[in-house]
Input
Amino acid sequence: MGLLQKSLKARMTAYFLLVSVLVVVALAAVTYFLAAETQKEMAIAQFEVTADHKEFEINRYIAEQISIVAKMAELDELRRAADTLLSEQIGTHQYESDYFKLAEALFLSTYLDFGLETASELTEIFMLTKVGGRVFFSTMPDDEGDYRLSDQYFIQGLRQTFLQKVYPNPDTAAPTLTVSTPLLSSEGKLLGVLAAHIRLSVLAEIVNRKTGLGDSGEAYLIDAHNRFISADRLGEDPFPRGVHSSGIDAALKGERGAGLYDNYAGVPVIGSYRWLPDLGLALISEVKASVALAPANQLGSMLLMVGFMAVGVLSIGIYLITLRITRPILAVTDTTMKITAGDLSQQAPVLADDETGLLAEHFNHMIIRLKNTLDDLAEEQERSEHLLLNVLPAPIAERLKDGEETIADSFSEVTILFADLVNFTPMSARLSAPEVVGLLNEIFCEFDHLSERRGLEKIKTIGDAYMVGAGIPIPRDDHAEVIAEMALDMLDVIACFNLKHNKSLSLRIGINSGPVVAGVIGRKKFIYDIWGDAVNTASRMESQGLKGGIQITEATYQHLKDRYEFTDRGMIIIKGKGKMHTYILKGRKEEAIK
Output
């Protein structure tokens, strides 16, 4: 334990134990997959053998049916009866008599000679004329008179014994398998074609036998149109577009193989597939993967169970060792979480003398330096925030901090006040620079206090002139009233200043209301300013106003006329504007004060 306490490398050795456990589990998994692959290969080999056997049985059965039909065509009684019938006129009494003789000859010579069980696998036996392919006799009388001129079994059956691959019956669309052979007279003259439909249900029975497939396996035939050839599936249509799987599709392309894939119902299976070219059918043999791989699953489960038991035993020791190893790291982590939450007063405990202890010490030094840096940054940020708010309105400052580069807003209705200190310039000539700045600062500080108290926005000062607005950057409905109150308060400030300092300063104030554009200009030295004709007019109201008076425009008058007293100055000429109707604000109406 002492070595583990002193060296991180020693503790890392313990982690190899965990790696060993993972290797054990990995080996169990690999063993399982190898067993599953072996089981799959065995199942595939078994299916191939089973499919070979089923294919042999199918071919033997088809060969028997072809042999039966060929032997029928060689029976002298059948030949003579067919030759006689073809020589008679259809519909005559003699034709009817010869027809029944042919039927009797077919029954006696075929079913009795070949045995009822064997011959019964032919669902229909019929004869066709050599010219036109007309059915002149059939065990299904309803088909007599039909012409099969274009059917392959007729065309090929005129020359040789022929097996036509499974095809859809023209009348019923049911899968049909037909064998045909030339029908010759006793003298060897071609009379027509003898054909028979083979019972496909027998093929389905051969394929459906469970031999080699177990209880859960199945084998089936699929025709070229993706339809089942199966007695229990014929007539059903659960798959309107046919049955499909990778095995079925590969077999229909003429391929032969086996493997693990999803069957037509989407169930994982291990299957064998092949194409029977003579019949035009795909032979599929499948068993559910879960059943075929059950031994491998059991082996894998057992291996995993043993592996997990070993992991359980090992995990106890590993946990105890890990708990000892990670304790210093967890202590540092816990301290880190508290610091992340904002508590920079935390210190990580030093619980070991090895690398983790050294990490904790360096971590504590880093936190101390970080705390000092953050304190300095917070102080600088507070100072910067204060300076920025002294230059710009708070909403505008927030927009700049959010990354908005160009700030320009339009305001439909604001009120602007310009104020100028009359006689300040001559008075400043008799004072020192500090005195001039001190007096001007005292006055403007009072103005700033009034502006802040009434929620106005100081725009700027130019020399001894002061500019303030209401309704910017936040619109307000009482913009004219608060500016009027500001103007009256400013006159009171000057009166108090004169009394305090024994001076004779006075203010000339101009006010106007209207639309303006406001925005921030400059990159290094920001300034929030406003522009527009309303601003110029307010400036003219001040410059061409009366000493100690508050001159307002008609626009502002309309906002204030009900609450304030005015002197009508009438029409005066305003530089750059022409004649304008202006008023002198005198004070508040008594009823407004009440």
Summary: Residues 237 and 468 are 89 Å apart (CA to CA). The chain has a mean pLDDT of 81.
